[in-house]
Amino acid sequence: xxxxxxxxxxxxxxxxxxxLPEIGIGxxxxxxxxxxxxxxxxxxxxxxxxxxxxxxxxxxxxxxFDTVSEANLQRQVLYGSEDIGKLxxxxxxxxxxxxxxxxxxxxxxxxxxxxxxxxxxxxYDMIVDTTDNLxxxxxxxxTCVILGKPMIHGAIYKYEGQVSVFNYRGGPTYRCxxxxxxxxEYTNPEPSKVxxxxxxxGITGTIMANEVIKIITGLGSILxxxxxxxxxxxxxxxxxxxxxxxENQRITKLYDHY
Length: 258
Known about the structure:
34% helix
């Protein structure tokens, strides 16, 4: 195909996706041109990275500083027993490159915080939040507001998942959904202390990847201003509306702690 930036191999590899009239060659070209940063390569990050790579995202960056532990293997499907003790960023990058050699990967082996997020995030079209740290989520959200980047968010708890898109075309930010509280007032237990159903991150992360692909290709309705909540025990799915709080869209400074 002379009039496309896609190689013959890319056209063959992504043929089933290109066949969809809503995507076509044009949509696949948008995916190839896109640059996406995934913050975290744990339970949510693993499926997000796999499906974005398989879809043909041109530039896929992984920000992760942790190492693989035995307790990760139940749900973090990019890793195996032989990876215990190794850096997740290195192992995840190798797995993604094995999955799709057409995707350019980038490894960022540092903790994202207020001292580096503005510099790092500025290079990418959108940011995917797969973290389980509340303070980091606020930093990601505020950085996206300052830089004007969409933030694709997901979170999990026992058998429940949630997905939304923040800071998208004037929509609400993460703070609009979850206002910061004084230190010590956040009382929800961490997932490591209450348990987690192994398939839940896979389901949630796949939905997050779906939102990324939809934003890039202009396909369907985006979860901006809405939070998808679901429970995989009873298959209940609900969407709640998230109002815009204008002051959260006018953030100009980052803080180390919230």
